[in-house]
Design a protein that fits this description.
By secondary structure, the protein is α+β, with helices and mostly antiparallel strands. Helices cover 15% and strands 35% of the residues. Strand 7 (102-107) and strand 8 form a beta hairpin. The chain is elongated.
């Protein structure tokens, strides 16, 4: 086979993949799932969300429990009565996993620890509290308005700082914490735990932009740096148009 024939075949494959990579159906670019007391959590008020060094997602519930999510189910670790009396309350306002393994909690403005191996909670004494790093203390603050990664605006709308991606949330969601793992976005809120994941499209696992071919902007994009994803609603539908090279 001549070099000219080989080049022609490779160009034809590239051309056909570019045509097929256009979305085949109207759909939102993101999917939002909600977890609350009706589908796995013991309580709907989720005050914090973190991920440990093994990849498990953990959430704190205001009513005195942590929960670990394994991808399908939640395992709960509630405070017992003795622990509640030691700490002085069972209202977990926020928690933080330092170095992926050390659990620190803000329990009604008193700091405590949690041991995932035993499932037990213990209060920090005054010396241990003073020894906490400023990073840990900052993460244990309860009120969420704006961080270096996220900000909360009106509507309500959650905006990612680095690229301006905006996500519409329920009016009374009450965002408490956000975890961005790279593949998923987890939002801890008064109304439950929200999981935002991108929908897969044809060839996307292999070619996000097949062979360098330019793709159209994501559904609902208001400008080059901002994406709006309506909560539990389909975004503006894609129009099934042939790739520009397919019309020539």
């Amino acid at each position: 086979m001549s070099n000219h024939s080989l080049i022609s075949i490779l160009f034809l494959i590239k051309y056909l993949l570019g045509c097929l990579a256009v979305p085949l159906s109207a759909q939102s670019d993101y999917r939002i799932e909600k977890y609350d007391a009706r589908n796995g959590l013991q309580h709907h008020w989720v005050s914090g969300v973190e991920r440990d060094s093994t990849g498990f997602v953990w959430v704190s519930l205001l009513e005195g429990a942590l929960a670990r999510f394994d991808g399908s189910t939640f395992r709960h670790f509630p405070m017992n009565e003795a622990e509640r009396q030691q700490v002085g309350s069972n209202q977990i306002l926020r928690f933080h996993i330092e170095d992926g393994k050390n659990f620190y909690l803000n329990i009604d403005h008193n700091f405590a620890r949690f041991d995932p191996a035993t499932g037990r909670f213990s209060p920090l004494d005054e010396a241990q509290t003073k020894a906490l790093s400023p990073k840990i203390v900052e993460r244990l603050q309860f009120h969420f308005t704006q961080t270096k990664d996220w900000k909360l605006t009106g509507n309500p709308e959650l905006v990612r700082q680095r690229d301006g991606a905006a996500f519409d949330l329920p009016e009374k969601a009450g965002v408490n914490d956000v975890l961005d793992t790279g593949n998923e976005i987890w939002v801890a809120a008064f109304e439950g735990l929200f999981k935002i994941t991108p929908r897969r499209r044809l060839f996307e696992p292999l070619f996000s932009q097949p062979f360098g071919m330019e793709q159209g902007p994501p559904t609902g994009m208001r400008n080059a740096n901002e994406i709006r994803v309506p909560f539990l609603k389909s975004a503006s539908p894609r129009v099934n148009r042939p790739h520009p090279r397919c019309t020539k």
